[in-house]
User: Fold these one by one.
Assistant:
Number 1:
Amino acid sequence: MTTDVDQAVEVVGTYARREGTTVRLQLHLPTAAELTEPRLQLRRRGEASPVECAATVSSVGTWSTLNASVDGDRLRSGTWRLWVKPDGASDFRRMAAWLVVSDSQPIALLSGETPRTQMAPPRPRRRPAGTAGGRRRSQARRALVKVADSALSRLPEERRARYRSTLAKAARRVRI
């Protein structure tokens, strides 16, 4: 059974690193939570079973440091949420941290709340004057050039060049 209570995780002193095939995690907790026999669990959306490992804790004043080692071969690419179980009798609590694993990038342990923001819808863009229908113009121009070329192909080369020049000037004036 899980609860929706987040365990805060401090940004400074929180990291993950690879050592061979092992992934070492260190989480710096701002409040000395009562962690007697902590277990760490990593969950990934779409993953059938979570990855679980034992953890050790050391406390200094009101701060706690949670250390754990996970077999890196069990972690597929993606974002893994972290959960902590303080002792054998408690439920897992979600931590305000997640592990990002990639085959082509370094591993990253991010802490803090998940952003709840959404992008604003895009504003409609206005086209500058004279550019409206640019695609239609180029399609129309291609069609007219094709018709003109087939009609002018029967004329002698000198007259054909003169007519093409006149048609090009007219097209520029009309903006085709």
Number 2:
Amino acid sequence: MEIKDMQIEDIEARMSEINGLLNSEDADIDALTAEVDELIEQRTALETRAVNKKSLLEKVATASVKPIDAVEERKMDNTVTKAELFDALAENIKGRATPEQRALLTTNATGGTVSVATILDDYIWTDWEKSPILSRVRKVYIKGNYKVNYEASATGAVVHKEGSAQPAEEQLVLGTVDFVAEYIKKWISVSDNVMALRGQAFMDYIHDEFGHQLAKTAEAIVLEEIVDSELSAKVTHAIDGDAVLAGLAKLSDEATNPVVIMAKSTYAKIRSIRTTAGARIEDPFEGLEVLFNNNLAQEGETEMVLVGDLDGVVANFPEGEEFRYIVDETTLATQDMIRIIGKVMMSAHLVRPNGFAVISAQ
């Protein structure tokens, strides 16, 4: 199909194919660059046409005489209503959005339209920020695999008195962390009745099924990286009133805003410990904020306490933080069911030596 004949969905499909081709060593970068430029030009033309059509329809509608209760609710600044935005977002996820609805989601907040980020930030993709762990992790958005260097060791600066021999050259040893992103996925099968839900009702359903679970898995990936990383200090110490102090002592100077991460059962156990004199420990967490994740005390696993600065962890989202959806109406068609797949691509690594201490009794 020639680019001039493509619709929005055709352009998105080709963009996805080109993204895959870029990973090939023999990819013709010049040809692909030219093609992407043409695709963007065609998509812009289609979106402009849809916006112009919407504007024309609104002019025709306002020229007609309608009862007051039949006039569509609008904001004072003539932008579309929140209900329309939810309808557009819901139908877009289903793959059933009209060109006008697509225009609402793919253009910036000009001319009576609102960008998709405006809706997502305010409503559904808040799970990243709701998580006290994920919200503290540094986020980058670099496409493909990439490397981060860290200072493994270095000699310090010295005072050089005038006229004395020059100081020795700094001995710097760098380490490298490789970021290879993978998809976090979840899928469910739903009935036609669910797909018939509109607007906010459908978005509420999707959020309940996907948002929290995908964010929860991302949080588990961050903690697993901290526990397994060669850059974290491994501390063998009883999980008691001194455990946090033992971990804090191992942190580097660059860990300037440390927190404590533990399961709620571990928190309760430490809080309940009393000294031999019978007095309750005043603050076993050394004044640090305590964050909870029950993965750190799963049945049959070693109980752990993490102490460190989450700013030393970097999470890369090559495709952005927004969850992507695939609606498959074919695979389970004989069962009158529709499969919805939610996914987000991510990799996370600790990039600061001794940025975290992992305390366990063994």
